[in-house]
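Notes on consecutive records. When two proteins share a document, each keeps its own sequence and its own token line. Never mix them. Below: protein one.
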Amino acid sequence: MHTVNWERLWRMSGITFIVFYIAAFIVYGEQPRVGASAGKLVSFYDGDRNRILIAAVLFGFAVLNLLWFAAAITSTLRDRGQGGWGTAATAASAALGSIFFVQMTLAASLAYSIAGSGNVPLTAGVNDVIWVLSVLASFPAAMLIMSGTFGLWRAGIVPDALFYAGVAAVVLVLLGGTTWASSGFWAADGAYIRFIVPIIGLAWLAVISAVLLRLSPSPARAPEQMAVPTP
């Protein structure tokens, strides 16, 4: 018999999210931009149907781990008297996870049947909606970073340097919600929202995961260690 430390697994969920997210990003490939031609849309969604559906599964696991990671932050903050920030982290992760699930659902629907049906206007419209959701996801993402950073700092878990870095991350991610240019770097399908915002978010997750993993187990969570039979 051995015990499973569920609290430690929750704290590791941030790293697990990063692994699944990067895997899904690579498998998914480069999504057609806003206003892409019918040929590019059909080639991507219908021609690479299986690849997109596999990416949807990987991304689904990534989102589940993100929610578990937010639960770990919330649990840690409540144990240290910062329940308000913990509740904010839970709400932010739920909103962010919902947007991610909608994006995943739309992309999978396009690949599964819509793109192959020949309805090009519908395919183009749904493709554009996915990009718009990427911009809107900046707001709950910034709230998650803010609640986690401020809460852990108030609890005395992260030093001032990480706090200031977290504040900078909040501002940079929030700027992603303004990327409404018609084309270029600041567009809804531009480089800022496609690369800069995700990289900042992943970096924050990695750092906070490392911080949480270094914390000693909470006595209040001891009952959550479950005995598991070994073969």
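Protein two starts on the next line and is unrelated to protein one.
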Amino acid sequence: MRPASLQERHEFYKREFRTNLILEWFRGWTKPIVFAVVIGRHTKIFPARYRGDRDRTILIDEYDTLQDLRRYCVEFKPESVYYDRNLYKNWDEARRGPGNFECPIHGTLEEKMNRRQGLSFCRLELQLAQEQALGLAEELSRSFRELRIVYSGRGFHVHVLDEDAFFWTAKRRLKLARSLSHRGYLMDEWVAGGGMRLIRLPHSLNGLVSRVARPLGRVKVSSFDAVTDPFCLPGFSRS
């Protein structure tokens, strides 16, 4: 796995980014959806004209259709694309306002950052993430009806899409996150508790590792090989 080049990002969003899959992901949503891009914060790969914006999180809240989102991505050539998982009543309200494993071989994220390896990870870390995602989905299925697991490119996200859960308070989310942590699940309380609004957009390119974020069924997750499975390979990584 390696960072995608600007040309590869451009080709992916121009030719492979399927907006019909994005529509399917958000089926049933009637509220405004805010998207966001990060151009080159981690990879330091960015279009020269956006040098001053490379580290910013740029919100995309002015669009008519998802074809406009595609045009933004072709223009920015971002390393990452996200969506705001909060729900808003209208656009005025909307405009106001992943876990890291300690690898027994390579150490903590802080240790890897000190060695300039902060974005790296190994198969063991991916295996740990797969096991945690499956166990977490099983645990959450006792309380929620609509769960989806997404391979993010560097790990796995478990999305709870029950509408009632969208309106939980931060306090209630944090209580659940801490309860799961006590049961052995690695939880990022800033994300699970609602402090972090953004989560990687399924079917977008994770430019840090040249993999496409894909929703996976639980059976698929258990046998999934993130390094070689063609389901998550962009076209430029297959040739």
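For the record: Residues 93-106 have pLDDT under 50 and may be disordered.
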